[in-house]
Amino acid sequence: MEKFRKGSTTYGNATFWTQDNGILYCKLRNLQPDLKLDYKSASLYLDAIRKLSADEPVPLLIDLRDTKGTFSNDAAHLLSDSFSNMPFVICEAYVVNSLSVKLLVQAYKRIYKTNIPYALFNRISEAETYCLERTAELCQ
Fold first, then answer.
1. Exposed/middle/buried for residue 65 (C-beta within 10 Å: 0-12, 13-18, 19+)
2. Is the dihedral of CA 26, 29, 32, 35 positive or negative?
């Protein structure tokens, strides 16, 4: 993970950043329940992940607390196809604090399958532990 690029990037309702622990973070901020993540925004998010990971294997922690809305079918297909072909995302940890978002993530993962392991958490600290454990497993 030596090539891991530090920095942050913001696109619309999403901010991506890295920390010294090697985790790539994403915080989505959307308070509009009728807003859908579209194909263009999903493309920008994927570009941010590629740039900040510097094509090195990293865990992705996605903070969806207090987020509303959903995603378009086109965006969902793009994300699932891209994650299936993205060898540098080793796992996804979702942090949620509402039943509706938890169900949305579970439905997305069931319908748009990827090979990347994922887990849902209520706290950032639990998600970080999961990410670090998955990283350690790969280094063994």
1. middle
2. negative
User: From CA 121, how far away is CA 119, in angstroms rounded?
Assistant: 7
Closest CA to 67 of 47, 94, 40: 94
Give the torsion sign (CA, 44, 49, 53, 56): negative
Mean of pLDDT values over 55-79: 85
Mean pLDDT of 102-116: 86
Is this structure's pTM higher than 0.90?
A: no
Token output for 32: 């509009």
Q: Where are the alpha helices (DSSP H) in the chain?
A: 39-53, 73-84, 99-111, 124-139
Q: Residues 45, 3: contact at Cβ < 8 Å?
A: no
Helix (H) or strand (E) holding 119, with range, is strand 118-121
